[in-house]
Amino acid sequence: MTDKLRSEVLMLLKDESVPVNDRLQRVCELLKERISYYDWVGFYFRNGDKEELKLGPYAGNPTDHTIIPFGKGICGQVAVSNKNFVVPDVKAQDNYIACSLTVKSEIVIPLFKDGVNIGQIDIDSNTIDPFGKADEEFLEFVNAEVSKIL
Ligand code: SME
Questions:
Q1: Which residue range forms the structural domain that includes residue 25?
Q2: How many domains is the chain built from?
Q3: What's the pTM value of the predicted model, to 2 decimals?
Q4: 37-64 pLDDT per residue, tens
Q5: Is 123's C-beta closer than 6 angstroms to any atom of ligand 1?
Q6: Residue 31 to residue 8: CA distance in whole angstroms
Q7: Does residue 39 have its Cβ closer than 6 Å to ligand 1?
Q8: What is the CATH number of the domain that holds 111?
């Protein structure tokens, strides 16, 4: 994840002429386009006071899973654990919600606002075991920057 990509993310997020949701949408599209093994990129956010996540901006195929209860799937687990979740092989997970048969791996990084877990960025990949420390650090950076504009 290059410095150039990081500065492009910053440029998109700081563009105040664009509504916040559209800025997040652009970030999803940028990441999907620029990182070959990012095949679906989306944000989920807590749905009001409910114990569930609601799909926000995303890039990639539409998913049926627009609402995910806390605790369910990789996303729902991150909503309660507050921890990064890297899944090298989705077949090895019991508590997993399949969005597409082509997806082989997934990474979910929680997004904090004022120390509270308010959502997450979720990446699906059609490649097996592609995610490393660099992805975690990069996506933590993206979430920290997103948090500043929410
Ligand atoms: N696979 C996720 C569901 C969301 S989709 O990947 C878009 C999960 O298990 O939580």
A1: 3-149
A2: 1
A3: 0.97
A4: 999 999 999 999 999 999 999 999 999 9
A5: no
A6: 10
A7: no
A8: 3.30.450.40
